[in-house]
Sequence to fold (153 residues):
Amino acid sequence: MSVRIDETDRKILAELQRDASQSLDDIATRVGSSKTPVWNRIRKLRDAGVIGQHTVMLDADMLGFEACFFVLIRTSEHEAAWQQAFLKALQDRPEVQEAHRLAGDIDYILKVRVKNARAYDAFYQALISEVKVFNVTALLSMEQLKSTTMLPL
Fold:
C-alpha cells in the first residue's frame, strides 16, 4: 500500500519518534492541528505500515548489558538452506540487536549486546555450533558516541 506523506504527517511522525507516549492532544498542539485529524493521520500511517511496533528504549548499561560487540562474519556458504539456518540462529538469540547482510568483503554484520566478554564467548560458541562460518571478527565498542532510532524527516 502506497501512502502520500505531507508536511503535517512528517511533523506527527517526528513527534512520535521523539516521544510516542505523549497524548494525542499534545501531538496535535505541537503540529498545529486538532486531536481527531491527528488520530486519523496516525491510523492511516499505521495501516500503511509507515508506523510499526511501539516499544520503549531501555538503558542497556543500567540493566547490566555493558558490552556491545560488532561482529563481522564471512561465510563460504551462500545456499538457501544455510541462509535459513543462519537467520534462525540469529532470530533465536536475543543478544543480536541488529543483523545486516552486506555487499563487499564482509557478508554480515551483527550488533550483539551482552553483559561481558564471557557472555559474548557463550554467544559465539552457540552460533558457530549451529552454522558454519568462514571467519568471525568481533569488535568491542569502547564508547557509544551516538545512538538513535529517529529518521531525519
Notes: Helices lie at 7-18, 24-31, 35-47, 80-91, 117-130. Residues 4 and 45 are 9 Å apart (CA to CA). The first helix runs from residue 7 to 18. The chain has two domains: 7-47, 67-140.
